[in-house]
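Ex. 9. Protein: DUF7492 domain-containing protein.
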Amino acid sequence: LKITHIAALIFSLYFLSFLRNGNAHSWVERAYFVSNNTIVGQPGFPRGNVLRTSPSFTDKAMTYLLPPNGHTTNTFLPSDPFCKETQRSANQTSGSPVLSAHVNDTILLLYQENGHVTKLDEDPRHITSGVIRVYGTSNSSPTDTLQGINEWGFDKFIQSKGDYGLMLWASFDDGDCYQDNNTPKALERKTLVQRAHLEVEGNDLWCGWRVRLPAISP
Ligand SMILES: *[C@@H]1O[C@H](CO)[C@@H](O)[C@H](O)[C@H]1NC(C)=O
Ligand SMILES: *[C@@H]1O[C@H](CO)[C@@H](O)[C@H](O)[C@H]1NC(C)=O
Ligand SMILES: *[C@@H]1O[C@H](CO)[C@@H](O)[C@H](O)[C@H]1NC(C)=O
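Predicted structure tokens for DUF7492 domain-containing protein:
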């Protein structure tokens, strides 16, 4: 397995807390290579991406709920696939290419907070924005399951010689992000020092976490 160009890495954010009333789910919209603290080059996109600007876009096109509606609450079956159906094979949709990056590169994964940060106060059922986990593999399979991947830890990258593992476990709220919605939290964050907004963000600041791509076994 010789991969210096990690096109095969899959990134899935698992959000353990959702605002059920808002209908607003989040997913990795883009990834960028970061050098010297600065976003460099063109973005990369998830597999099977449906851009928000596409006529076929709906929230559902990019969300994968586990357990799915109809399942017993909080029950994950051993057979529940890790990825959404449209993202189980390495298939990039037209106009949404994969990110080009190399071993040891730092990449930034960007997602929208969709009220999970700025409107948290309005949701009595949640006291935090929840957490995210980022898993990576150079060896993904359409049959990977959530339960299987749940056993991946930070140490697994070393044990598996870089084939798979947990890359990041962090709070959903990166401490900076907001949607420009005039909530007290958004108004406060707008005044803070922040990175330059991308054109696609407009007045919002998307949430982002960086991960470093680990070495892959030769
Ligand atoms: C990194 O960024 C800093 C601050 O913008 C700049 O002074 C420095 O020259 C940059 N270094 C490289 C290697 O580009
Ligand atoms: C890749 O995605 C496109 C667009 O969604 C679809 O038409 C095509 O069948 C997919 N190919 C594979 C191999 O999944
Ligand atoms: C990645 O970083 C490690 C540790 O700093 C280094 O030993 C290795 O040579 C680097 N690999 C590449 C491909 O740059």
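Check your answer against this statement. The beta strands are 12-13, 28-35, 38-44, 106-111, 131-137, 164-171, 207-212.
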